[in-house]
Specification:
Elements lengths: L20 H7 L12 E4 L1 H10 L2 H31 L8 H5 L1 H8 L2 H64 L5 H36 L6 E4 L14 H11 L1 H23 L5 H64 L5 H35 L8
Parallel strand pairs: 1-2
Length: 392
Amino acid sequence: MKRFIIFLTSFMMVFSFPVNIAEAEELAPVPVSITTVAETKELSIEEAVQLAKDSSREMWKLQNTLAEIKESRKKAKDAKELAEDIMAKTLDQMPADFVNDYVSKLMAKNGYYIVYADTQTKEVEKNIEKYKIGIEIETKSLYYNALIAEKSIEINKANLNKLNEQLRVITLKYNNGTATKSEVLNGQIAVQKAQTELDSSKDDLEMAKLNLLNKINLPFNTILILKDKALTYIPTKDLNLTASIEAAKLQRPEILKAKNALSLQEIETHVYTAYYTSNLRQNKAAKEKLKDAQLNVPQAYKNVELDVRKNHLKLVESERALINMNKSVELAKELARINKLLYANGMATSLDVLTAETQLTEAEIGAYQMLVSYNINKMMFDNSNLITAQGQ
């Protein structure tokens, strides 16, 4: 069975060239040791998520942006009060720069910049919430990849032990003249293949842990011990799609953004239609922009519902694959059991037994991979209505 989990890695090639010793001493008069002692760390999945959030530069940037917007609101409030004071005066009493930029000052008087700051604050806060969930999903996916590799090692070890035992039996029969050299060779090939699969699983685990360490910003030589092994399975029949859609409509940032844009456009259109006459381009453009903003709100609701429904369908598809794979495991177990009995009674070949054991191993690994895939798709579905990835 072809393995479908792909582990993404990035390698940097470092080239060193011979240099004059004196020049080297000039460049680096004080040698610096980069050797560090490897630390062992037991890591739960929630600890991994928290470490990833704490080390996220994008999170820091969003927090800084939020602080800047809140500061700009104070300036917007001052600008509104200033515009109200000046507009209470007669035209000849107003400063020249105020008159020349009268539309902008009129926008300030109508609270446009305050509303803008308020809407941006809400959007950034919502984006921070969504970004945190995104980090959670990515980190848990990397954690799950490591679990897949650990499970593959466990299953491949068990398979290697079974095949070694089968090879022992075949060798005894060969020595007694009841098995052929071909059967012994098939047994040896099966053992060698199982050993290769086991070694590959160990490499996959090291790669998966490196990716996880990189995400949570820990030294690459850290010895990770994954504490959380259990994976949950919540059947899709227990999920309320309608409630998820309604939750998404209340929480998704796309809808908030569309509503905020409408609120701002209403103020802008009010100012432009009040200042510019109906025959002028600015007046007509402002009215068109308001129509677009009004239409964007129901479209945002529709887009959000579509996204939730699509993620639900992906989850259902993933569940179907998981159920089918679990059935394949049961069938493979039964096939392996029957072939052993048939072989013991001389009604099947040793190759039948070896093949059945290999198929069982592939099915067991595949079932675990499908369970991980289902959990990832469950997180994606939860994220589509901004439910935290821990579950509903």
